[in-house]
Amino acid sequence: MKKRTLLKFIITILIFVIILFFVIFIYKSSKYNRYYTYYDLLSSKQTVENSFKYKNSKEEKKLYSLYSDDLANAIKNGLDNIKKININDVSFIQDDHLYSGYLGSGLGSINNTQRKDLIIYEVSYEVEYYDDSTEPLENGNQISTYFLVKNNGKWIITDIGYY
């Protein structure tokens, strides 16, 4: 009889812990921003990280699938000149002025992008070119702003701003 009571107690505690876990997970998801789910932030950041990974490995098809058509054509030109490129940090930007600028007078105004479908990251990275005289940036540490738009449920990079 005592074993049965102990088993019920353990099951009750496990159910409570599972419910508590889901409540905390949902709370943390909504805490990030009123526009995004935790999955949105995770998958969009992964898109940025994969773009650097595919630049290093020269996996062109995979790389170009992460960008809008216009931007994919632009990065094709400089891909062969990249010797190596590594991310130092990817930071989610929450500055409403930057979002308003993109949506009001940037590409977002042309493409009718909605706020919930735009995520912006500041990316710190180190790049080494074979010949940096042909590039807009020099070898070394750089910081760029990556603009991602949700397109058919997938986050793609539509613009990159350089400091």
Automatic annotation (TrEMBL):
Name under which the protein is recorded: DUF4829 domain-containing protein
Keywords, comma-separated and alphabetical: Membrane, Transmembrane, Transmembrane helix
Domain DUF4829: 45-161
Residues annotated as transmembrane: 6-27
Name of one Pfam family that matches: DUF4829
